[in-house]
Write a structure and sequence with these properties.
The chain has about 190 residues and is α/β, with parallel strands linked by helices. The protein has 8 helices and 5 strands. It has helices at about 15-25, 35-40, 45-55, 65-80, 100-105, 120-135, 145-165, 180-190; strands at about 5-10, 30-35, 90-95, 110-120, 170-175. The mean pLDDT is about 90.
Length: about 190
């Protein structure tokens, strides 16, 4: 069974998590943040150490590890009754992050649209990440060199993912506005689905 899915896509700090949490609070919608799944790992576990090894350098965790961890989380969410794939729409943020992950997940996700949160103001994104680092104790958001590497990785991996899903599915939303304005734009887009 493929999961009916809306992908939230954008640079680090563009607001994917914020928007996903709001959508996930709507009945019939289930939000999954791959970043939160990773950060919920115990740092002294083998999986937690692997995540820290990559994220602390601003690098992506290897694809197979990422997809396996995500599949495990989804399976547990279904078993616990939090996600009902027959009726719920999956709001996925932070996955897929590159073309290979998109290809791996093509047999699992029925992507109905991709909401691309666009923010061309890098200074604004950096400020958001550093503020988040303080409030959420996010090591991957604290160091400016790590942030720059994350942006470089994101830029390098972005276009192939957008191309994979195609212009028909990609909807661009200006993410430089306040979160409520961004949310209204997203709701207008998904209301048409």
């Amino acid at each position: 069974m493929k999961y009916r899915t809306i992908l939230l896509f954008g640079a680090p700090g563009s607001g994917k998590g914020t928007q996903g949490k709001i959508l996930g609070a709507i009945p019939g919608w289930f939000h999954c943040s791959c970043g939160e799944v990773f950060r919920s790992l115990r740092p002294d576990s083998e999986l937690g150490r692997t995540f820290l090894q990559y994220s602390s350098k601003g690098e992506l965790v290897p694809d197979e590890f990422t997809v396996t961890l995500w599949r495990d989380f989804i399976g547990k969410s279904i078993a616990a009754g939090r996600f009902h794939p027959e009726t719920d729409t999956l709001v996925l943020d932070g996955l897929p992050r590159n073309l290979h992950q998109s290809q791996i997940l093509s047999d699992t996700l029925e992507v109905v649209t991709m909401i691309y949160l666009v923010c061309r103001d890098m200074d604004k994104l950096v400020a958001r990440l550093q503020r988040r680092a303080l409030h959420e104790n996010r090591l991957d958001d604290a160091n400016l060199d790590t942030i720059r590497r994350r942006f470089a990785t994101y830029e390098r991996e972005t276009q192939p993912v957008l191309d994979f899903y195609g212009k028909k599915l990609v909807r661009r939303v200006n993410a430089t506005r306040p979160p409520i304005a961004v949310q209204l734009s997203i709701l207008k887009l998904i209301q048409r689905l």
